[in-house]
Amino acid sequence: MVGYDPRAQNAAPSPNEAALAGSAAGMVSRALISPFDVIKIRFQLQIERVSSRSPEGKYRGIYQAFRRIYSEEGLSAFWKGHIPAQLLSICYGAVQFVSFEFLTELVHKSTPYDSQTSGVHFFCGGLAACSATVACQPLDTLRTRFAAQGEPKVYGNLRYAVSTMWRTEGPLTFYRGLSPTLLAVFPYAGLQFFFYNVFKQLLSPPVKSRDSGGNLRSLVCGSGAGMISKTLTYPFDLFKKRLQVGGFEKARAHFGEVRTYRGLMDCAVQIAKEEGIRGFFKGLSPSLLKAALSTGFTFFWYEFFLNIMKNTKEKQRTDDLSGGRKER
Known about the structure:
The chain is mainly alpha-helical.
């Protein structure tokens, strides 16, 4: 199971093991779900309606968006911003899972609450995600800028993007959209860990060992948790994306209408007035696909890599013991 489990026969992962497994899980998951992320961002940033019955928008549906991006920008466009996205996923995965393992152990040892209850997972998962968000927000802003730009590119590479944004917009630009991100990430991540814990307990009998991951059940439970949590917190993710591309309007002119927002409340009010309630859920379809795959793969690979490290340690311990017997 994910999180500290006092009943487990095997020792809890060390911070290094949790960081390594979290980083590897984030890296593999990111590579697999990047195309859905690019499409989700394009939908979120489009002012016009995203509808097959509304031809004024550049993107009108998932299939049409895939075809248009491919024809105009090539296959590599689906991995635009992949380097900062991978750095984001590696950093985020490490910080989030190290924090989560630490917090669940702390709660269990210093409070009367059981670390494996869903409520504890919600609270600790939300706090862990907030820690990871603050640490990784600059990478998220860079990832959004790269995924949002069309052709010709404004930023040719990561180094140029960082230096240009720092020089022309100042260091605070890397934290654009942090407020809605933190407002959304606590319940979003908390609900992910909450529902993952609920589904794992519903779909499997209680076990006394941590090696319950790396299988189809982990993937299914993570996918369900991701879709539910994404739907409940989606508008904040859209607000974040709109704010992150502030000052980047020229690069998006050929995508359609652009807007400038003075902050979170102004962003929400303008979207409600111009785009209606549906505007808060633009890009939800690809986002749900992405959330299902991303969350499912993240939990799957996290437990998978933890099991590999655990099995490697056990094998090494067995080899050392057998070697010691031979020496005697």
